[in-house]
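Look at a sample.

——
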Amino acid sequence: MIFLKGKNFCDLGPIPYAISEKKEILKHKARDIKNGVKFAKDRKNKKLPCLVSSHVGTIVKTGPGIDPVLQENKAVNIRLAGGRMNGLIIHPGEEFSFWKTVGSITKKKGYKDGRIIFQNKLIPGPGGGLCNLSNTVHLLVLDSPLEVTEFHTHSDALAPDGEKRVPMSAGTSVYYNYIDFRFKNNTDQDVQLCIWTKDGKLYGELRSERPFPYTFGISEEGHHFRKEGDKYFRVSRIYKDTYDKETGELIDKQLIWDNHSEVMFDYSLIPADQIRED
């Protein structure tokens, strides 16, 4: 990355930004060719028999400063992109790529402007809201033995937590087509990704041919909000926990995100008892 007087090259204007994007796309393609990556592309309508993990989330969010039109557009975008994933089979040794599966996001295909994060600001943008979908897929994979091979973060504080804090409820970033989310099937059996929407909910399942001998979970330590200058940040450490299915014994604890996310919602909604002064 090129820096000029404290600025990134891509921040100098539209042309430098386009050059930087093209460079990142070419780097991705070159790396895939060098590593001989085989991407998942087969699909089956019939579900594999064993449920590995599942997740349900509300698509449309409401609250102060949240544009309802952009939220409805997000629902359209998620339905279209999720339809491209539903039933996807990832054979042993194959890799899932969000963008290889979804393809381009254009108005001709029906995609609309939703909320995107650009230069740490929430703005309208094409295909906005698909990070919600990538995060759902990420949660499914974290609750499995599959290996995450590419993961980018944005803010994990896009909206207030509600009644209960859910670690990794946001934060998985994708941007067409070089900021990708990927995982590899490093097991000895087929797995299947099932994604669908219904009644304002996003449903996700990861399925397999046979049961796996382990169960998984996500835990969080040290969660709090911290003021830095005139901004607030969510701070925590998030782990993937692996348990023996028969004994319930914790056999592995892996740090997956040292979370330091800028709060993107109204600061007045941050619970006062969760703010720490360092």
Observations:
- The chain has four helices and 15 strands.
- The two ends are 32 Å apart (CA to CA).
- The mean pLDDT is 90.
- The first strand starts at residue 3 and ends at 4.
